[in-house]
Design goal:
Layout: E1 2-10, H1 13-20, E2 30-33, E3 40-43, H2 45-49, H3 62-67, E4 71-74, H4 77-91, E5 98-102, E6 105-113, H5 115-133, E7 137-142, H6 145-155, E8 162-164, H7 168-176, H8 187-196, H9 202-206, H10 210-228, E9 246-256, H11 259-279, E10 282-293, E11 303-314, H12 317-331, E12 338-346, E13 349-350, H13 363-383
Length: 422
């Protein structure tokens, strides 16, 4: 009995989330669009079979969607994020050693199980997640994370949604039919380099000499090759590495010319960035603001960006807000139609356990600021984002808001949009 990795991947995650609260979509083509309803970012299997391609502009497919009964949704990230958290909580019950790899993928490490027990556990994972959340998942099993990713891809094609890669002959047969660019961690650039050297398949790469691999793909590539040989080299990340920066940016629903509207947008982004910062237990030492036009439009183009160090590291929205608006006014140029703006918080460090500055607020003043931010976050968590905001982010209709004309309700995160059962 040995240790095995389970790679659990939610099937067509965004489309599956839409189906959970709308069972009538089962068996029907579903696509989800990017910010401002721009491009296709998720497809159900039925939509894939129709030839809908990832990343293609939605406006080019409008007639096709109507004629073929394709159900189109704006991205609903609040719903997807909450459903992801529910899935990950369930998976944590199966192993105390897990790594949340992305919004819809997770590695679990199971120790000391024989093959029948492994397969039984994987089937139980699928059944439990589907029963408790409505989200279908597939499970790949192998002795290394790289092979588990490959097994997961095969699991999507198998009837029971579970695939184990353990037998050496079976692994070599699978690798023989896989291009190097499809290996986790190799990528297109590495695949082109390998192809030029006559290495075309994953099996070709597995059989290369270690020194040759290190020369052409560095030590990182060698770890991947060793993993193809069932030698674990990539450990679980129990916690993600500390963030070095934090970004909040959006494309506008329409192109913006007025500075007042841009100030509202940046103000809103600062508030969102501040919420994220406090949730992570971090403070920022610098703030950057950027502004850009749509480079795909045949009109005058401009992109501006500037960074400013803060007097003292902070996570207070009030302390971040003033410098961000000052930067925006500095980089703004009239006469342009802006498509996007964003706020980047830099020089991040833990809010506790660090050397304090004489310029930072202390004592009662700091306690009041921290209390204000806690109250603001608590209200917005309980009653929905935007319940309590700075007036500078606008009180009426906001022309800079993203287009989300086809967004489904916030079924799990908004009291006003809870599903109603008749």
């Amino acid at each position: 009995m040995r240790d095995f990795y389970l790679m659990v991947d939610c099937n067509n995650f965004y489309a599956s989330c839409e189906r959970v609260f709308n069972p009538g979509l089962a068996g029907k083509p579903v696509v989800v669009l990017s910010n401002n309803d721009g491009c296709v970012i998720a497809r159900s299997n039925e939509a894939k079979a129709m030839g809908v391609v990832m990343g293609e502009p939605a406006y080019k497919r409008e007639a096709f969607f109507r004629q073929n009964g394709v159900h189109v949704f704006s991205s609903n990230y609040a719903l997807y994020g909450d459903m992801s958290a529910r899935v990950m909580r369930i998976l944590s019950n199966f192993s105390g050693e897990m790594e949340v790899y992305s919004i819809d993928e997770c590695f679990l490490l199971l120790r000391g199980l024989n093959t029948p027990s492994l397969l039984q556990t994987a089937l139980e994972v699928r059944r439990t997640v589907r029963e408790w959340t409505g989200i279908p998942v597939c499970v790949g099993i192998a002795r290394t994370k790289t092979l588990a990713k490959i097994a997961n891809r095969l699991a999507k094609k198998d009837g029971d949604g579970v695939r184990l890669l353990e037998n050496e002959e079976d692994i070599d047969r699978v690798l023989q039919g896989m291009e190097t660019g499809d290996i986790w961690g190799i990528g297109r650039k590495g695949a082109r380099r390998l192809c030029a050297c006559g290495v075309h398949t994953a099996l070709d790469l597995k059989r290369q000499d270690d020194d040759w691999v290190r020369r052409h793909l560095t030590v990182t590539g060698l770890r991947t090759v060793l993993e193809l040989r069932q030698i674990p080299c990539i450990a679980l990340e129990d916690a993600p590495p500390p963030a070095r920066s934090l970004v909040c940016s959006r494309s506008f629903g329409t192109r913006i010319e007025s500075l007042a509207s841009l100030e509202e947008a940046v103000s809103a982004y600062v508030q969102r960035a501040g919420e994220k910062l406090r949730r992570k237990g971090l403070v920022a030492g610098a703030v950057q603001v950027f502004l850009e036009t749509n480079r795909f439009q045949p009109e005058p183009q401009y992109a501006g960006s500037r960074c400013r160090a803060l007097p003292a590291p902070t996570a207070s929205t009030l302390d971040l807000h003033g410098p961000a608006l000052e930067i925006l006014r500095d980089i703004h140029k009239p006469g342009y139609k802006y498509q996007k703006a964003g706020v980047i918080l830099l020089d991040l460090s833990p809010a506790t356990g660090r050397q304090l500055s004489f310029l930072e607020p202390h004592g009662e003043e700091k306690a009041k600021r921290d209390a204000l931010m806690r109250v603001m976050d608590r209200i917005n968590t309980a009653h929905g984002r935007g319940t309590l905001t700075l007036a500078a982010s606008g009180l009426g209709k906001k022309e800079w808001h993203m287009r989300q004309e086809r967004r489904s309700p916030l079924y799990t995160t908004s009291w006003a949009e809870l599903p109603v059962v008749h």
